[in-house]
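ok trying this again, last paste got cut off
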Amino acid sequence: MNIEERVEELLEETGALKRGHFLLSSGLHSDRYCQCAALFEEPAMAEEVARLMADALPEDLTVDTVLSPAIGGILWGYELARALGARSLFAERKPGELFQLRRGFHLSRGERVLLAEDVVTTGRSVLEVVPLIEAAGAELVGFASIADRSAGKFTPSHPFYSLIKLNFQTWAPADCPHCAAGTAIDKPGSRVEKG
């Protein structure tokens, strides 16, 4: 079994891969959804996924700190930092504001930072954290996610590592067969993007 198959098995086993009728953050509808929070209900499985990522990263990649956007990336960032023997920080924001390092967190000049997000769809959250690294004079060494849902659209200027690619079929609300069938919709995401 390869890494991607094992990660999919763990996501299925924990109920993180869901089937139904979902409103995505993009405003589109889908019959699949990945909610990695369910994976983190099982610490041993979360630890295994983090170890798989740590082992898959290039051997010459040095990471001092794993930084995650709150709230979805916090547990993933923590587990990944633990697997890498690195420090774990998270950025947070109040509604309508930019991400900030709070709670006494700080980055130092030259510190090598890996940005971690559990699921990357647009990459918006992790890209919004990049200015914190730049302002501190720290060095961004890459992005790490459990699942890449971007369908190849997230192409940052630094390396992007993911354990599994998830390509779910999506529909505009007017074209959604689940809406046409009258199936209730679930909005599991953390925010709705402005179009």
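PB: full thing came through this time. The chain is about 30% helix and 25% strand.
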